[in-house]
Specification:
The complex is a heterodimer. By secondary structure, chain A is of the alpha+beta class. Chain A has 13 helices and 14 strands. Chain B folds into 3 domains: 69 residues, no CATH class; 186 residues, ATP-grasp fold, B domain (D-amino Acid Aminotransferase, Chain A, domain 1, 2-Layer Sandwich), CATH 3.30.470; 90 residues, no CATH class. The chains are: A alpha+beta, B alpha+beta. The interface between A and B is large, with 51 and 48 residues.
Chain lengths: 376, 372
């Protein structure tokens, strides 16, 4: 009984947090589609409780649009349902290996998989450690470490963050630390940033990577464009790549995340054989519809001319990592292609399905087939 | 008050209700053993719970639930709750699953070349499992086929999150039939049912069965593993210190070496950390919960005191090597097996039990506090 009350309270807490978003999206859509607020509110609640879509999911996928409401939701699955499906293939007990960036780093290092240099982990409720696991106990130790020992570009990421949230990048030149906009910032401010973040309590600090010169030139930004490869491991000797996408950073954006189109970044399907871009997509934040582009907006290059450098090395790395990370079978890898080689940025066992509709359907079909075979 | 705080308070209330109900049951069930009425045991248990933070079953296992226990003895011991708090000042909570989940633990040992018992397969109730050398996701028929014909002749099935030897199923094949170690025949279906319908655990690791080093086999007259528990602490200079070492000697036909306050009949013996020599040993507890000191193994009759654990320096070096690999965890209790093929690390425990048995809990508490 007490357990049930606790569960109910947890659900209530989550739902209460979503009320403003639900109301705001219902209001926005009623003015865009010229229909009643109550109708949109009812549709919102139906999508949320019947199909488990989060308010952001149904709004940015355009499910509240009258023409989409009836059919489109059948093609896509909610993040929640997708996670349930993924857990049938990927054991929950292993989620720390991919969902916690400090574990991910530790395991990749142990397996000799290339990852960026690890400078440390900050744990608010405990202390933190430097890259070798030595304790940095207290604010003063952290300040000394950040200003004296962490040189060059570095990135701070929440250990269990997703979608590029709460990521910051800095450069330390002879003890002078600057943020991504070139403003000087003290080591104490960086410590405060980690210590006062409202959502996350633990962060990893790692070397900042830049896109390789060739890719930067083609895509018009040297920030990190991220290659997403989805792999499936049959055994420790046999794995396959199912899909490839490239997340392209727009202008001065630091992270390549799409976030329902809010970042302005682009995403492109990648031909698995050639590494060439296939369908370049810009997500329209208002309608939720994908817009297909022929050219890279910032560089003006036609997408048929863009081939990802070191694509074969990236594929080899993902396949190798997939075999090592078994019993997690399905993983979405984020890979950085740099002048120093390819590096694993992240592995995601709860990865989102590809943005391009064609790839989405392909992966969904494969997923359903595996679950079906397994259940036979 | 925020919903989060209400949830937290309710969780604590639920936990405390559970303890009080356990205590109530124990007050009646232990009344005859302790020669004390329930109305004396219950308030004594409440005092242990709320003042010293000993949970009822932990207090019973330590033999201090009896209201006649000398208060000085109680104060020499340390509760698991208090000990965990100290451990979490040394070990970041975020990293404790690295040792508490056997799947992650063995995976990490493999990547870091720490010797461990070979893992043949992993079974998950709610997810796809994995069988070594099997291509794809094994279905139930594949599991049956594997247990029946392809699995090694001797295997051990352990829950990923098991403790105190609970939920372990050893299996051996004899003339194409499968048996557990008590000699009961098992069908592959029965083994799968054991994992699939297990109420306590959701996932299992299926691994190599290890056999004790010949000298330990002679001492115990049992080929099953008598594991060595070594508690390590990485100090501020990055040196690995050994704080405590003990060996659990299996007895009779036992497969598992857990002592459980003597209820299993196994022996627990304190080791000299400089050379691995047995100093003192305890066996079964009496009705009052007091364990009896022994000098001879209860089954073989051989003298225990003074016996040295074979390959002691290899064992210490392996444990120290493992301890450094598991940083930022800085203290752990390692269970290691000494076999004819060398040392194998069976388990690491970032939240190990306080070794109250030899009154070492307070000593380790002091060391940990000095090094936090």
């Amino acid at each position: 009984m007490l357990s049930k009350i606790i569960t109910l309270l947890i659900h209530l807490r989550r739902d209460v947090k979503e009320i403003p978003e639900i109301l705001s999206f219902a209001r926005k859509t009623s003015s865009s589609y010229k229909n009643s607020f109550m109708l949109n509110l009812c549709r919102s609640l139906w999508l949320k409780y019947k199909h488990n879509f989060s308010p952001k999911e149904y709004f940015y996928h355009g499910y509240l649009a009258p023409e989409n409401f009836k059919d489109k939701k059948k093609e896509f699955i909610s993040r929640k349902k997708l996670s349930e499906m993924q857990l049938k293939i990927n054991p929950a007990g292993y989620k720390l290996l991919t969902e916690d960036k400090s574990y991910f780093h530790k395991f990749c290092k142990s397996a000799n998989l290339p990852v960026s240099d690890f400078y440390g982990v900050y744990l608010r409720q405990f202390y933190g450690t430097d890259g070798s696991g030595n304790i940095l106990n207290g604010e003063k130790k952290w300040q000394e470490y950040l200003s004296e020992k962490v040189n060059g570009g570095f990135v701070i990421k929440p250990i269990n963050g997703a979608y590029g949230k709460s990521i910051s990048a800095f450069t330390n030149t002879n003890g002078v630390i600057k943020d991504i906009n070139g403003n000087t910032i003290s080591a104490g401010n960086i410590f405060d940033l980690m210590n006062c973040d409202k959502k996350y309590k633990s962060f990893v600090i790692e070397k900042r990577l830049f896109a390789c010169a060739k890719l930067s030139e083609m895509l018009g930004s040297d920030n990190l464009h991220t290659l997403r490869l989805i792999t499936f491991a049959n055994s420790a000797e046999n794995a396959e790549i199912l899909s490839a996408e490239l997340k392209i950073v727009k202008g001065k954006n630091f992270a390549a995340n799409i976030d329902f189109g809010s970042t302005g970044n682009l995403i492109s399907q990648v031909d698995l054989n050639t590494g060439g871009l296939v369908n370049l997509i810009k997500c329209n934040q208002e309608s939720g519809q994908n817009i297909f582009l022929d050219k890279i907006p910032s560089a003006g290059l036609n997408i048929t001319e863009v081939f990802i450098p070191q694509f074969n090395e990236a594929k080899k790395l993902a396949l190798n990592a997939a075999k090592i990370f078994l019993p997690i079978r399905y993983i979405g890898w984020d890979i950085a292609v740099t002048d120093e080689g390819v590096f694993l940025l992240e592995g995601n066992m709860y990865f989102d399905f590809p943005t391009s509709e064609e790839e989405y359907k392909k992966i969904r079909k494969k997923f359903a087939q595996i679950i079906n075979d397994y259940n036979k | 008050m925020s919903i989060a705080k209400i949830i937290l308070k309710l969780r604590h209330f639920k936990r405390d209700c559970g303890y009080v109900s356990e205590l109530l049951k124990l007050s009646f069930s232990e009344s005859t053993n302790y020669l004390n009425p329930p109305h004396k045991i219950f308030p004594h248990g409440l005092k242990l719970l709320f003042k010293y933070r000993f949970t009822p079953y932990f207090a019973k296992d330590l033999g201090i639930l009896n209201p006649s226990t000398d208060i000085k003895l109680i104060e020499k011991l340390i509760s698991r709750e208090r000990f965990s708090e100290i451990q979490l000042k040394i070990n970041p909570l975020e990293f404790t699953p690295l040792t508490e989940n056997k799947g992650l633990f063995y995976h990490f040992c493999r990547l870091n070349k720490i010797p461990y018992p070979e893992v043949y397969a992993e079974y998950f109730k709610d997810s796809s499992g994995i069988i070594k050398d099997f291509n794809g996701i094994p279905k139930e028929t594949d599991w049956i086929e594997w247990f029946e014909n392809k699995s090694p002749d001797e295997i051990v099935i352990k829950p990923h999150l098991g403790v105190y030897g609970h939920g372990i199923l050893p299996v051996k094949r004899l003339k194409n039939k499968l048996y557990d170690f008590s000699g009961k025949e098992l069908l592959p279906d029965t083994i799968i049912d054991f994992m699939k319908n297990n109420k306590e655990f959701k996932s299992f690791v299926i691994q190599e069965r290890l056999k004790a080093h010949k000298s330990l086999k002679l001492l115990t007259e049992n080929e099953n593993i008598s594991s060595v528990r070594i508690v390590t602490l990485i100090d501020k200079n990055d040196d690995v210190k050994i704080l405590y070492a003990a060996v659990k000697l299996v007895s009779g036909k036992n497969f598992i070496d857990n002592h459980e306050r003597g209820s299993t009949g196994n022996v627990i013996a304190l080791l000299d950390i400089s050379n691995g020599e047995i100093q003192t040993a305890f066996c079964a507890a009496d009705k009052l919960g007091k364990a009896g000191e022994v000098k001879f193994h209860p089954i073989s009759g051989k003298e225990i005191i003074g016996v040295r654990i074979p390959m002691w320096s290899d064992l210490v070096n392996t444990v120290k090597f493992a301890a450094l690999k598991f940083k930022p965890l800085r203290t752990a209790g390692w269970d290691a097996a000494v076999t004819d093929d060398g040392i194998k690390i069976l388990e690491g425990n970032a939240l190990f039990d306080p070794p109250n048995f030899f009154s070492k809990g307070r000593f380790i508490e002091k060391e940990l506090l000095e090094n936090q």
